[in-house]
Amino acid sequence: MVKRKLVVGNWKMHGIVPETSIMLEKLKKEVEDIKKVEIVVCPPFVDLYTANISVNGTNIELGSQNVFYEEQGPYTGEISPLMLKGLCKYVIVGHSERRIHFLETDKIIAKKVAAAVRHGLTPILCVGDTLQDFNDGFSKITILSQLQAALHLITKDEVAKVVIAYEPVWAIGTGKNCSAKRATEVAKDIKHTIAELFGKAISEKMRVLYGGSVKAKNANVYFDDPDIDGVLVGGASVDHFEFAKIIKGAEKHTK
Ligand code: PEP
Fold first, then answer.
1. Treating both helix axes as pointing N-terminal to C-terminal, what angle do 139-151 and 180-198 enclose, rounded to 10 degrees?
2. Can you tell me which residues form the catalytic site (predicted)?
3. pLDDT, tens digit, for every residue of 138-180?
4. What is the pTM for the complete model shown?
5. 235 C-alpha vs ligand 1 centroid, how far in Å?
6. Answer CATH for 5-252 from 2.30.30.30, 3.20.20.70, 3.30.70.2740, 1.20.1560.10
7. Mean pLDDT of all residues belonging to the chain
8. Spacing of C-alpha 80 from chain mean position
9. Of 1, 141, 176, 180, which is most buried by a Cβ count within 10 Å?
10. 234 lines ligand 1 (CB under 6 A)
11. Can you tell me whether residue 68 is helix, strand or coil?
């Protein structure tokens, strides 16, 4: 089955509300002819409403960078899946910056994944090894245990809807992207584990992305690989020109 490549931009904590439409206007012009790539932009929560109006009727989808697992209640500062429904299609869950700075555990992440799918949002679940894991030979165990833990509250059919992003912590924001060979090995391990846990049909439907210091100059190596279904781009996605170059690369590499 040929899947459309998915290119996701995580703006992180960049972009104030008045800049959102300007940034998206520029991106829209650059990518208006793109047909074979699914484009997703994940701005900060407060920019989503404006962004939603801006991308309406275009080939750009939106995602949020986080979600809480309850629908409503006394959870000051949190944003629920009910609030995001209608504003965006995707939601990033378990980003390493949230695991590290906000102490999100596998247990919390599993609840967020379940809440997102049950409200019709598509989770982009981030899993990844630290430099310590990598040096100690524990990368595979870390990645696959994060994967298994995050998916344990949802059904087989719901698992098929989840997008997995392999994001080595040592590659995020460091300029040291992971080789395509290694990213492919990990993507294969992830798909193999999904097949073992939920069946081959589910693993074949599922998309696995690579993320970590992806730039226009290194992105194309990931698009050549049939086991990598796209990329999650952080820093480089804030520059509309650079992000569009990555998207155009994905389009060119799609048969
Ligand atoms: C990210 O934030 O998910 C990411 C991959 O960041 P960067 O591209 O900046 O490494």
1. 40
2. 95, 167
3. 999 999 999 999 999 999 999 999 999 999 999 999 999 999 9
4. 0.97
5. 6
6. 3.20.20.70
7. 96
8. 18
9. 180
10. yes
11. coil
